[in-house]
């Protein structure tokens, strides 16, 4: 039924679905487990399946495409105005369908598995950078308590390390040990950041090379 739109409110265990025609005639309302949802959609005629753009939406959009359906994602802020009644899973699923029927609705293109993998890698690098910054700030804070003031920035780490290792350093032994541990953690984060960066660069180079590769005539 190509005229059918099925809106899906995703959850970890139970999915709420709402099916209606393009004209707004309600055809089905169901609450299904993950396994039931996949089996149910496999049995349905080809239709448009719409999800809110959230954590698992890209995966399920690809799964629906694999079953022969069309799939689209809508940003949550564009769905919210169409929730008719008290917010719950059923109301959300219905709102997704209503939003999808709007002529000027903006849809989000589902990501491929490769695009998601790159995003995961990028977020992992950003998380490591954030963790390293926290460690550097913690190190500076410890030293500041003992009268050692260092500016912000990784470029000052060598000065900090030199101060901690200086034989004439007047810091208590326990504090020196803590600073050395923080420096070791920072160094480990830096190596992991470099590794992620190199992987991202390699992915970008491979992608650009693929785009430049001419398509041979068959």
Q: What does this molecule look like?
A:
This protein has 218 residues and is an alpha/beta fold. It folds into two domains: 4-100, Nucleotidyltransferase, domain 5 (2-Layer Sandwich); 113-212, no CATH class. 53% of the residues lie in helices and 15% in strands. A five-stranded mixed β-sheet has the order 3-2-1-4-5. A hairpin with a 4-residue loop joins β2 (14-21) and β3. The chain is elongated. The model has no long low-confidence stretch (mean pLDDT 90).
Average of per-residue pLDDT values = 90
User: What's the alpha carbon Rg, rounded to whole Å?
Assistant: 26 Å
**Helix proportion range:** 40-55%
| SSE order | EEEHEHEHHHHH
Shape: elongated
Instruction: Give the amount of beta strand, in percent.
Output: 5-15%
Question: What is the CA-CA span between the terminal residues?
Answer: 36 Å
How many structural domains? 2
What summary fits the major beta sheet? 5 strands, mixed
Number of strands: 5
Number of helices: 7
Uncertain regions spanning at least 5 consecutive residues: none
- Structural class assignment: alpha/beta
- Strands side by side in the biggest sheet: 3-2-1-4-5
Short synopsis of the structure:
The chain is about 55% helix and about 15% strand. With about 220 residues, the chain is α/β, with parallel strands linked by helices. It has a five-stranded mixed sheet with strand order 3-2-1-4-5.
């Amino acid at each position: 039924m190509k005229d059918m739109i099925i809106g899906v409110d995703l959850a970890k265990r139970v999915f709420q679905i709402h099916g209606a025609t393009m004209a707004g005639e309600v055809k089905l309302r169901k609450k299904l487990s993950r396994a039931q949802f996949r089996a149910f959609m496999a049995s349905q005629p080809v239709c448009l399946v719409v999800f809110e753009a959230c954590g698992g939406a890209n995966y399920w959009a690809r799964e629906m495409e694999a079953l022969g359906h069309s799939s689209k994602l809508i940003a949550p802020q564009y769905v919210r105005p169409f929730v008719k009644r008290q917010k719950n899973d059923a109301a959300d699923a219905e709102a997704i369908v209503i939003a999808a029927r709007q002529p000027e609705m903006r849809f989000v293109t589902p990501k491929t598995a490769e695009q998601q993998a790159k995003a995961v890698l990028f977020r992992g690098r950003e998380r490591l950078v954030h963790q390293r910054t926290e460690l550097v700030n913690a190190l500076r804070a410890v030293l500041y308590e003992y009268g050692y003031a260092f500016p912000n920035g990784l470029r000052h780490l060598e000065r900090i390390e030199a101060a901690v290792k200086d034989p004439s350093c007047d810091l208590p032994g326990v504090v020196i040990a803590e600073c050395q541990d923080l420096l070791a953690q920072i160094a480990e984060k830096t190596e992991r950041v470099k590794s992620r960066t190199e992987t991202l660069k390699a992915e970008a180079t491979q992608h650009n090379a693929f785009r430049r590769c001419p398509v041979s005539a068959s």
